[in-house]
From TrEMBL:
GO cellular component, one term: plasma membrane
Membrane topology: Multi-pass membrane protein
Entry-linked InterPro entries: MetI-like (IPR000515), MetI-like_sf (IPR035906), Phosphate_PstC (IPR011864), Phosphate_Transport_Permease (IPR051124)
Single Gene Ontology BP annotation: phosphate ion transport
Subcellular location: Cell membrane
Organism placement in taxonomy: Bacteria, Bacillati, Actinomycetota, Actinomycetes, Micrococcales
Protein task: Part of the binding-protein-dependent transport system for phosphate; probably responsible for the translocation of the substrate across the membrane.
Family from the record: Belongs to the binding-protein-dependent transport system permease family. CysTW subfamily.
Name of this chain's protein: Phosphate transport system permease protein
Transmembrane segments: 19-44, 64-97, 109-133, 139-157, 164-188, 208-229, 236-256, 276-299
Domain ABC transmembrane type-1: 72-299
Superkingdom classification of source: Bacteria
Record key words, sorted: Cell membrane, Membrane, Phosphate transport, Transmembrane, Transmembrane helix, Transport
Length: 313
């Protein structure tokens, strides 16, 4: 009686499969190695600034954390203001393209939105200075006159319009194409049966969107918001061109002196920095790196938590 083979018969591994699998492993490892190398470089170069004695840091800061805190505040504050403006607009535009606009209009509008993502940030900065700041300044005066009692709109109002709110509006325009593109693709992936079932039960177009599309796309919307937040946190040129920055911490959005951001501060100060000043700028970049990493980790956690309730399964 013939005995069975010693082991299972293995399929012949082709050269193309081996090369492809090896390439993917190398590519994934290269990303991790690059990220680790950047983190190690930032940490090593940041140590002199973090341990610097009193009086040696820029702006006569007593220690590094006193120096970097206003920059962290300005970075997060500008990004949050931008998201407050961009999120409803992005979701509305994406819904219009995916569920309301005629096919030809949707294709044209989608192409224009994608084209906006390719505009350089310096162009947005020039637009913010030359057009947007001048256009919104009378509106800022009106806000300061009638709503100055509210802390966000406290006077004195900037005479040029170059405020943290203007910078946030520029950031909002910059992140809208990215957020809209992601939301649009997620909305288009909603199962057709879910939409038709809602309409068959007598739901209006908006009710169908509310009970079928938005719950399904919840995790994708969160991903789009977090991606837009990461884009806003790291923006440099547009903020540096629009803001009249100061090392301060305040929530007023209409005043001339506005909190600066980490990226803009590095771009403006690095050419003239020397000694510990260079290390302080690199250390502030490390803080921005950590903040961005934490936000991405939070986004991943939220998306994984909500995935089971999105309807995707």
């Amino acid at each position: 009686m013939t005995t069975g083979t010693a082991g299972a018969i293995r399929a012949k591994v082709r050269l193309g499969d081996r090369v492809f699998s090896t390439s993917t492993v190398v590519a994934g490892s290269l990303i991790l190695a690059t990220l680790a190398a950047v983190a190690i470089f930032l940490i090593i170069q940041s140590i002199p600034a973090i341990t610097a004695p009193t009086g040696t840091l820029p702006n006569n800061a007593s220690n590094f954390w006193v120096y970097v805190w206003p920059l962290v505040f300005g970075t997060v504050w500008a990004a949050l203001l931008a998201l407050i403006v961009a999120t409803p607009l992005s979701i509305g535009i994406a819904l219009f393209i995916s569920h309301y606009a005629p096919r030809r209009v949707a294709q044209t509008l989608g192409y224009i939105i994608d084209l906006l993502a390719a505009v350089p940030s310096v162009v947005y900065g020039l637009w913010g200075i030359a057009a947007l700041a001048t256009f919104v300044q009378p509106f800022y005066v009106w806000l300061g006159t009638y709503f100055g009692w509210f802390p966000l709109f406290a006077p004195p109002v900037s005479g040029t319009g170059r405020t943290i709110l203007t910078a946030a509006l520029v950031l909002a325009v910059m992140v809208i194409p990215i957020m809209t593109a992601i939301c649009r693709e997620v909305f288009l992936q909603t199962p057709r049966l879910h939409e038709e079932a809602a309409l068959a039960l007598g739901a209006t177009r908006w009710e169908m969107v509310r009970i079928a599309v938005l719950p399904f796309a919840r995790s994708g919307i969160i991903s789009a918001i977090m991606l837009g937040l990461g884009r806003a946190l790291g923006e440099t040129l547009a903020i540096a061109m629009v803001l009249s920055p100061a090392i301060i911490v305040k929530f007023a959005v209409l005043q001339a002196q506005s909190p600066n951001t980490i990226a803009a501060n590095i771009a403006l100060q690095f050419p003239e920095a020397t000694g510990v000043g260079v290390n302080a700028l690199i250390a502030s970049g490390l803080v921005l790196f950590i903040v961005t990493l934490l936000i991405n980790m939070l986004a991943r956690y939220i998306v994984n938590r909500r995935k089971a309730f999105s309807g995707a399964n």
